[in-house]
Specification:
By secondary structure, the chain is an alpha/beta fold. It contains 8 helices and 13 strands. Strand 11 and strand 12 form a beta hairpin. Helix 6 packs across helix 7 and helix 6 packs across helix 8.
Length: 257
């Protein structure tokens, strides 16, 4: 017997966006419900449980942050939430993530990017032991000598040094981390970082990977983090561990024995 499809609730006052997202999610085997405001959200949540909520922050009357606080303080506090924000709304984005949102996507966005983020959040949510309620957002992802802060969007080395990168580099790293020990093609990476306008013959993805390697101090000839497979693509070599608290820098751990 097939497992039931994940139920996604989209909350957005734009009917065109709701229809677009519902169509794309349905094609990727998700069950989808849509709400235009808080009242419709509450009615749908009473009717059926959901596995993840896509929440637009710019809603009329009750804004997205207000609804998010309601969700986190009520019976649906454990439901993962992916926020939709207007490009440049950094304050609301950071507030939402600090309150416990699981991820965010800036408008305009490619539906494929949102679907990838949804799948990533669902995977992280299922890492918790059965029956355990998620009380804290898994903000940090550790691998090798590095930790990614998904709120500030920078890398922290175990020595305490910080590496900052741009949106495209961040999106690329997260996609690779979500597919550890798997071959991902250049075309997949281009579509994820550039959306529907990606040119599958564009080799700029190699330059982006090269820049990402510099952030990680990764030698292409003896790759520790991102390995190149000729004529195939790339492999993220490290196991990724998600956690709510940042790792303690060695300097704060006291003298070594």
């Amino acid at each position: 017997m097939d497992a039931r499809p994940d139920h996604i609730l989209i909350i957005d006052d734009d009917a065109q966006i709701r229809s677009l997202l519902a169509g794309h999610l349905s094609k990727h085997d998700f069950r989808v419900s849509c709400a235009a405001n808080g009242r419709e959200m509450r009615a749908l949540l009473q009717q059926s449980p959901v596995d993840l909520i896509v929440l637009d922050l710019l809603l009329p009357m009750e804004d997205g942050l207000t609804l998010f606080r309601e969700l986190r303080s009520g019976d649906h506090s454990a439901v993962p939430v992916v926020m939709l924000t207007a490009l440049g709304d950094d304050v609301d984005r950071i507030v939402g993530l600090e309150l416990g949102a699981d991820d965010y996507v800036s408008k305009p966005f490619a539906p494929r990017e949102l679907i990838a983020r949804i799948r990533s959040v669902l995977r992280r949510a299922r890492m918790l032991p059965p029956g355990q309620v998620r009380s804290e957002v898994l903000r940090y992802a550790s691998f090798g000598d590095w930790t990614l802060d998904t709120v500030e969007r920078h890398l922290i080395h175990r020595s305490g040094s910080v590496s900052v990168f741009n949106r495209a580099e961040y999106s690329l790293l997260v996609f690779l981390m979500d597919h550890p020990q798997q071959v991902v093609t250049r075309d997949q990476l281009l579509v994820h970082t550039a959306g529907r306008d990606a040119d599958v013959f564009n080799r700029s993805i190699d330059l982006r990977v090269s820049r990402l390697r510099k952030h990680l101090s990764d030698d292409v000839r003896e790759a520790e983090y991102i390995k190149t497979l000729r004529n195939e693509g790339y492999v993220f070599c490290k196991e990724v561990r998600w956690c709510a608290e940042p790792p303690t820098p060695p300097a704060a751990q006291g003298p070594r024995p």
